What we know:
Layout: E1 39-42, E2 48-53, E3 59-66, H1 80-87, E4 91-92, E5 96-97, H2 99-107, E6 113-116, E7 121-128, H3 132-144, H4 152-171, H5 178-186, H6 201-206, H7 209-219, E8 225-231, H8 235-246, E9 269-275, E10 282-288, H9 295-308, H10 314-322, E11 326-335, E12 340-348, H11 354-371, H12 375-391, H13 396-410, H14 416-424, H15 428-439, E13 445-451, E14 463-464, E15 515-518, E16 524-529, E17 535-543, H16 556-563, H17 573-582, E18 586-591, E19 595-603, H18 607-619, H19 625-642, H20 646-659, H21 673-677, H22 681-688, E20 696-702, H23 706-712, H24 714-719, E21 740-745, E22 751-759, H25 768-780, H26 786-794, E23 798-805, E24 813-821, H27 825-842, H28 845-857, H29 866-878, H30 885-895, H31 898-908, E25 915-920, H32 922-925, E26 938-939
Amino acid sequence: xxxxxxxxxxxxxxxxxxxxxxxxxxxxxxxxxxxxxxxxxxxxxxxxxxxxxxxxxxxxxxxxxxxxxxxxxxxxxxxxxxxxxxxxxxxxxxxxxxxxxxxxxxxxxxxxxxxxxxxxxxxxxxxxxxxxxxxxxxxxxxxxxxxxxxxxxxxxxxxxxxxxxxxxxxxxxxxxxxxxxxxxxxxxxxxxxxxxxxxxxxxxxxxxxxxxxxxxxxxxxxxxxxxxxxxxxxxxxxxxxxxxxxxxxxxxxxxxxxxxxxxxxxxxxxxxxxxxxxxxxxxxxxxxxxxxxxxxxxxxxxxxxxxxxxxxxxxxxxxxxxxxxxxxxxxxxxxxxxxxxxxxxxxxxxxxxxxxxxxxxxxxxxxxxxxxxxxxxxxxxxxxxxxxxxxxxxxxxxxxxxxxxxxxxxxxxxxxxxxxxxxxxxxxxxxxxxxxxxxxxxxxxxxxxxxxxxxxxxxxxxxxxxxxxxxxxxxxxxxxxxxxxxxxxxxxxxxxxxxxxxxxxxxxxxxxxxxxxxxxxxxxxxxxxxxxxxxxxxxxxxxxxxxxxxxxxxxxxxxxxxxxxxxxxxxxxxxxxxxxxxxxxxxxxxxxxxxxxxxxxxxxxxxxxxxxxxxxxxxxxxxxxxxxxxxxxxxxxxxxxxxxxxxxxxxxxxxxxxxxxxxxxxxxxxxxxxxxxxxxxxxxxxxxxxxxxxxxxxxxxxxxxxxxxxxxxxxxxxxxxxxxxxxxxxxxxxxxxxxxxxxxxxxxxxxxxxxxxxxxxxxxxxxxxxxxxxxxxxxxxxxxxxxxxxxxxxxxxxxxxxxxxxxxxxxxxxxxxxxxxxxxxxxxxxxxxxxxxxxxxxxxxxxxxxxxxxxxxxxxxxxxxxxxxxxxxxxxxxxxxxxxxxxxxxxxxxxxxxxxxxxxxxxxxxxxxxxxxxxxxxxxxxxxxxxxxxxxxxxxxxxxxxxx
Length: 948
C-alpha cells in the first residue's frame, strides 16, 4: 500500500439498493427507506462496470479492483500481487513517467492509492468531477498500456520500496511477525494463505522482469477486473467514456475459481518468539473457521464481539476485572475469500506468565458455556448495524468500495440485501452453535511473543517459531538508475491515447452553510445541517488538556478523560455502555494537548437520547475507584510498550527536543511510570473543575436543526459550573542557531526513524498558510513532493517521507518524518539536507503551477465528509477564521509567485538551523552521521536504560 494516504477498511456495512442494469437483472426493494442506486453493465471484453450517482458534492471516486491477491501467487514468488500494486502507479505508455501520481497533483485528486489483500488488489482516488474523463483514461492506460514501461532498474527500485514497507510495518515494530507465525502453522504449505501478502524479502529479491510480465498478462485482464465510479457525473457520458477507453483492451484467459478446502489443525501447536521490540508478553490463539459471507461467519462475528467487547463481556470480566492480567482483549473472526480464522489476542501486563493468560481464557470460555449469550446482548449488537450502515455512506469512495467488494466476492453489487438479512437472522442458538462447532475443544495455534530474555513467560511446552530475520549489511543493496527510460514499441490503439482528455466544467468552491450561537454559560456552538444521511456527529470540546497539567503529575487529563466513560452517578460502567449500545451510538472522551473532547456519533432519530447520556457523562462522573485503578494499570502498561516502539520513542523524544525542559508540551500525554503511579483519584476530581462552559465549544454536523441542538445542551448549559479557567502561556523555544544531531539507540533496528525540524509557526501566523503552500512540493504533496520523489522513487531508501507545519492556535513544529533502511541512515539524512538547501533556489514556474492546481482544484472535495465539516467548524472557532476562509486561502494561492515561495523557503527551510533526531541502531549508524557536518551526534540513551 502506498504510504501517508487514506487507508480504507472494507467492512460489512448496510447499504440498501435499487438497481437498474444492462445485461443483468436485479430486484428493487421498494419498501426500503434509503436507496443508493447503482447500475451494472459488462463490456464485451469482460470488464464489469458499476456506477453509483451521488450529486451531494462535486466529486467522483474511481476504483479499479482486480480479483488477484497473494492467494494467486506461487511458492517462491510470494509478494507479487503487492509488488505489482506498487509498479502500476509508476508509469504507463500514455501517462508517462510518474503516471497517475503526477496527474493526481494537477487535477486536485485525493492522491492515487492502492491496497492488496489475500484476494484482491484495488486502485482508487477521489477527484473533482471535472477530471472524471482524465481518470477513466488513466485507469484504462494502466490496465491495457502499462507492462512495456517496466524495466529492470524500475523493478529493482520498487523492490527496495517494498522491502522498506515490510521493515516499517513488520520487522521494526512490536509483534510484527505474529501473523506470519500464525499463518505458517495454521495453513498447509500448499495453501495460498500460508504466506503473507507482502511476501518474503528473498522472494521479492528473486523476482525477474519476466515474472512481472507473466503475472500482469495472466491476472490484469478486463474479465478479472471491476471498475467502480461513484459520485457526481452524467451517466450516459460516463458510459461513453468507459466504452471509448476500455473497449479495445483484450479479454484475457478465463480465470478459474479457487477451491475453498476446509482447514483443520491436527493438533494444538504452541510456539514462542523473542521479540526485540516487545516490552510485554502477548498470547495469540487462532482457530480455523469459514470463508467470507459463509452463513456461520455472521454468528462468529457476533460471538467475538459479545465475548470481548464491553464491561460485561466474559473475557473482560475474567481477564481484566477479576484476574487483572491485561487491560483488554482483542477478539475477531477474520474471514477471507477462501477461509477464515478466529483469533483471541491478549497483550498481558509486564512480566505476566502467559500460562496464566491461557488459564484465564479457558475460564472466560467456561463462563460463556455456563451462562450463554442473552437475547438482549444480540439485540444491542445488531442495533449498531444501522449506524454502521450510514457511516459507510459518508463518502462516495466508501460507497464505491462496498459495491466493488460485493461484486468481486459475491458476484452481485446488490448482495447487501442478503448480507443484512444474514446479520439480522443471527440467533442465540446460532452463536452457541458456532462456538461449539469451531472453538470448543478444537485444536488451535498458540503464539507467545515475549520480550528478549523472557522466554520463561511463554506457554509451557512451546517450540521456537521459525522467523526469518533480515540482516542489514552495509552496501549490500544493488544499485540502479530508475530514471532510465524504457524503449519499446507502443501498444497499438484505434486513436491517439497520448493526448490527455480536457477538463470538464470546473466546479465552484461551495462553502457549507454554518450556523453559530453562544449559550448563556459561555459555550459557543457551531453547526452545519446536512441531510445526506440520517446521522449526527459532534465534538464537545473544553480548552485545556495537557496545557493545564502539573509537570510533576503529567497524565491526569488522560486518566480523567478515560474515567469519564466508566459510568455516571446513576449508571455503572456496564449500564452506561448498554445505554449507548441500545441507541447504536458511540460516545468517547479523550484528552489532547490543548483540550478535553467528548465525541459522539449517532442516528439522527436517537440524537436527543444520545445527548442525554453525554449530559450525564459531563455533569455526573462516577469516580469509580476500581475503574480508576484498572485504567492506571492499563496506562502504565501502555507507557512500557511505547519504550520499545521506535516510532513512539521518536515522537516522545522529538517533543522534548522541540519544546525544551520548561514547556508542558514536551511531556508525553500519558505521563511517565512515576507520575501515573503518583496520581490519585482526588487529582482527577481537582482537574475536572477545568471542564467549564467558559472554555467550551460544541461542533456538530448532521441531520439535526439548530433549535434541537441548543435544546439538547440545556442541561449542560444550566448545570455545568462556570469556573473561570486560565490557560497558562508558555514561551516557545527559539529555532536553534545551528543544527545538532541527536541519536536514540534501538539495538538491532531494521530501520532508522527520522524526525528533522525545529520550533516554527502558529496556525494564526500570517505566514502559516503561505508556508504550507510552499511545503507542498517539498514534502506536503505526497508523490508530488521532492522528498518522496528523491528518497523513495529515486533511491528506494524509504517507504514514505513527508514534511509539514503543525501549528495550532499555539506555535508548532516544522517536521520532516520518515523511516529509512538502516544502512542508508546517513545517506538519507544527507539527501534531505541537500534537498532543503536547493529547494528555494530551484523552485520554478512548473512547481508553482502544480502547487496551485492541486490546492485550488482539491477544494471541490474539501468538505465532502462529516469529519471534514467538523474540522472546518473547529478551524473557524479555534483559529478565529471567517466562515469563507477556504475561499480566502484560495485567493492567497492564486496570488502567490515563485519569488514568494523562494522567500518563504529561505526563511523557513534552513537545514543548518534544525534538530536532527534519529532513532535506530547506534552501533552501525551513529558514527557515520558525523559526516553531516554538525559535530558529534548526541546519544540520548547512553546507558541503554529504560527511561521512566
